[in-house]
Amino acid sequence: MANFSKPTGPQFSVDVYQNEFLPEGGRDVNAIVTVTSTGGGTTGGFANGGGTAAAGVVIMVDCSGSMDYPATKMRGAREATAAAVDTLRDGTHFAVVAGTHVAKEVYPGNGGLAVADARTRAEAKEALRRLSAGGGTAIGTWLRLADRLLSSAELTIRHGILLTDGRNEHESPEELRAALDACAGRFTCDARGVGTDWEVKEVTGIASALLGTADIVADPAGLAADFTAMMEHAMGKGVADVALRLWTPVGVEIMFVKQVAPSVEDLTGRRTEAGPRAGDYPTGSWGDESRDYHVSVRVPQAAVGREMLAARVSLIAPDPAGGDPRPLSQGLVRAVWTDDLAMSTSINPQVAHYTGQAELADVIQQGLDARKSGDRDGATAKLGRAVQLAAASGNADTAKLLSKVVDVVDAATGTVRLKAKVAEADEMTLETRSTKTVRVKR
Questions:
Q1: Closest alpha carbon to 434 in 110, 236, 190, 208
Q2: What is the DSSP letter of 436?
Q3: Which of 92, 200, 370, 430 could be stapled to 375 by a disulfide with Cβ–Cβ 3.0 to 4.6 Å?
């Protein structure tokens, strides 16, 4: 492990967990890379001239007609947005957008961002009282307006919070995808679905594309607490646009790069080239936190006794002064060929744990899809395997969600029965949270 961070900024560390030993002819190398950032949430990250990182947040509130059915949704959205505004730190740039089949600025309404203080927070909350429901849903327009607003100021941290209660019915999937592609890398975004009339894959897709979190708030009464927690999390970010840079020697093939904690997110297809045999994988913004990544590479065959550097993993962040990106920390992934069977067949516990967590996320999705299509046998098999994996890995939260969809006969063997009746909110909660993982016990 190496650490290159300056002591005045956030401190990043990289730790690599792997079994580097391969049998003769072995080629596949797997490693769990733990990245930890400390100091970002307390120092404000890479400071600008004012001494703190310039942060901007745009809150996008669904104001489509369905938000009035029941009326508690619109009322809850107003109260939640007001609570989020109250959580803004002084000096944070912010705006509120009302989303229907078009996007409208609610506050400050001048094509830019307000700067949070007692006066602007009060003005924003007054403007929220005038929010009413009516119209359709075109989320891509909301995201594009948020991007324009966040681009109107010099910001270090750019973040969005999006709330919707329905399906994106007033623009095509291609239009939403184009908006996400245009906004990716420009700001991060947390997405929330309120009630049970929205499409899980739409909301999770938005959060995935924009490197944020996704969740369900089935009861509108829970919105204020959720929005407050989201805003507190956003306020804790200290450094943005961090990339995981993977350099590999000649002949090494990258199989995949995945975030595996706190949730599963496949980053393989998001690579951007960063020089000879190097590529960057986006990780978004960081505060005081730790995340785990699974790096899998395939190396050339080598004789027993040989060893090689299979990959070098670095953390890269933009230079606040506009220079070349700065290295924050790095770790090395190694390959060593041995004829010791015990050494070469031992599976690193971190790798085994997260391989199981990734499979858990997959089989939950497959099981729920099978259930929706009427394939009860397929659903039972997949969700039974999910129960088995959740129990084996100690993922109690996912096990609890699964128990609302299936009756567990034997968790250890994955023997389950599908419940005859499942509340829609319970099924949507399981689907939305299926990628959340537990850390490996070290």
A1: 208
A2: B
A3: 370
Angle between helices 139-150 and 173-183 (to 10 degrees): 20
Centroid of chain to Cα 250: 32
Which tokens hold the place of 40? 């970002």
d(CA 164, CA 174): 19
Give the Cβ contact number of residue 351 at 10 Å.
20
Which backbone phi and psi does 184 adopt, to 5 degrees?
-60, 130
How many angstroms separate the most distant Cα atoms in the chain? 73
Bridge partners (DSSP) of residue 216 are 193
Joined tokens for residue 333: 């992934």
The average pLDDT across 136-141 equals 98
Please tell me whether the peptide bond between 23 and the residue prior to it is cis, using omega within 30 degrees of 0.
no
Distances in whole angstroms, Cα of residue 220 to Cα of each of 71, 131, 230, 243, 272: 10, 16, 15, 36, 40
Q: What is the pTM of this model?
A: 0.93
pLDDT per residue as tens digits for the range 38-78 = 985 443 333 333 344 589 999 999 999 999 999 999 999 99
| Helix (H) / strand (E) containing 183 | helix 173-183
The Cα–Cα gap between 71 and 145 comes to 26
Left (φ > 0), alpha (ψ -120 to 50) or beta: where does 39 sit? Answer: left
Q: Count CA atoms closer than 13 A to 221's CA, side-chain side.
A: 1
Residues 6+ apart with CB under 8 A from 324: none
What is the Cα–Cα distance from 200 to 404, expressed in whole angstroms?
A: 18
Angle subtended at Cα 226 by Cα 223 and Cα 229, rounded to the nearest 5 degrees: 150
Cβ burial of 415 (10 Å; 0-12, 13-18, 19+) is middle
CA dihedral 170→174→175→181, nearest 10 degrees, is 140
Q: How far apart are CA 351 and CA 442, in angstroms?
A: 12
- In angstroms, the CA 67 to CA 71 distance is 7
Kindly report, residue by residue over 156-174, the tens digit of the pLDDT: 999 999 999 999 999 999 9
Residue 319's alpha-carbon distances to 51, 153, 324, in angstroms, are 16, 18, 6
Residues with Cβ < 8 Å from 49, sequence gap 6 or more?
Answer: none
Distance (Å, whole) CA 170 – CA 140:
10
Q: How many residues does the chain have?
A: 442
Which residue reads 């016990």 in tokens? Answer: 441
Q: At what angle do helices 200-209 and 139-150 cross, to 10 degrees?
A: 20
